[in-house]
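In the current project phase, our protein records have gained a structure token line. A sample record follows, to show the layout:
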Amino acid sequence: MTAETFKIRPAVLQDAATLVKLYSYYVEQTAITFEYTVPSIAEFKKRMLKISRRYPYLVALVNQKIVGYAYLSAFHPRAAYGWSAEISIYLDPKTRHQGIGSRLYAELEKIARAQNILNLNACISFSETQTAHLPLTSVYFHKKMGYVQTAHFHQCGYKFSTWYDMIWMEKILAAHTIPAPSFHKFPEISTAFYTEPNTTDC
């Protein structure tokens, strides 16, 4: 994959239909998400709008075709958690293992540091053995990206007539100073990363 064929940019609402189609694979065929029903395009746009008011929501393109997306979102709504964010990623299954996920995560981490986000947390469905609906690639990917497991919840998700565990993995991005640094919403700093329309277009 050459630099000319690969691109990362902020998502816009016009991407929603494509992202829903991509996400539908994970809802309908995997336990990677515990969601049962594919959201409508209208619902998906609401989710994008809510997230993009504070956090980056990025898409990856190869030859101008969206092949994946990733975003940060609130780890918890209460104020004291403001320096932590949850990180999520969904790739076209046909384009996995090509470095796209690593590049999306690297971009999100760069933006998170600029926002003064200190902790990134990943919520991952888990089984002790690989199943037809849940490969263990997500755990291996996060370990490769420098995340460590911090919590394990047992048999808390039921999908495809199977009980699944859930783990949290975490990566510390910067020192936890006192006083805490000022948090910057992504729309406030997006022009430092992108000159194209950013997530404020959502």
In short: The chain has one domain: 6-190. The radius of gyration is 17 Å.
